[in-house]
């Protein structure tokens, strides 16, 4: 059975809990830990959901907010639903059905 996995990036929630309400407030603590990102990169990190994240950035964020990666990234895994396919009697044979011929009548 296939499993469908997803995750939720919770950096904004951790920032709000720590009293940080703008993305520019996160740049100095990151720089103190050797992570030098531009303000636009910090903004994307906070407002988006990253598909790739370096381990030094993850470690720095966990140190800043005194949390674990599990607190920062909430994961979820579910069994994928299987699509049902019509079989047997549910199949309709359309070869016997023919459309009616159209008749064109003169105006009048």
Instruction: Give a count of the beta strands, DSSP E runs of length 2 or more.
Output: 2
- How much of the residues is beta strand, in percent? 5-15%
The main sheet comes to: 2 strands, antiparallel
Summed over residues and divided by their number, the pLDDT gives a mean of: 88
Helix-strand pattern, N to C?
A: EHHHHHE
Structural class comes to alpha+beta
Question: Fraction of residues in helices?
Answer: 25-40%
* Rg on CA atoms, Å: 28 Å
- Number of helical stretches of at least 4 residues: 5
**Can you tell me the overall shape?**
elongated
Distance between the termini: 66 Å
Low-pLDDT residue spans: none
Spatial sequence of strands, sheet with the most strands? 1-2
Structural commentary:
The mean pLDDT is 88. The termini are far apart. The chain has helices at 11-17, 27-32, 39-47, 55-64, 69-72; strands spanning 3-9, 73-79. 33% of the residues lie in helices and 13% in strands. The longest helix is centred in the middle third of the chain and has 10 residues, at 55-64. It is α+β, with helices and mostly antiparallel strands and 108 residues long. A two-stranded antiparallel sheet has the order 1-2. Residues 10-77 form the HTH cro/C1-type domain. It comes from Streptomyces mordarskii. It holds the Pfam family HTH_26. This is HTH cro/C1-type domain-containing protein. InterPro entries: Cro/C1-type_HTH, Lambda_DNA-bd_dom_sf.
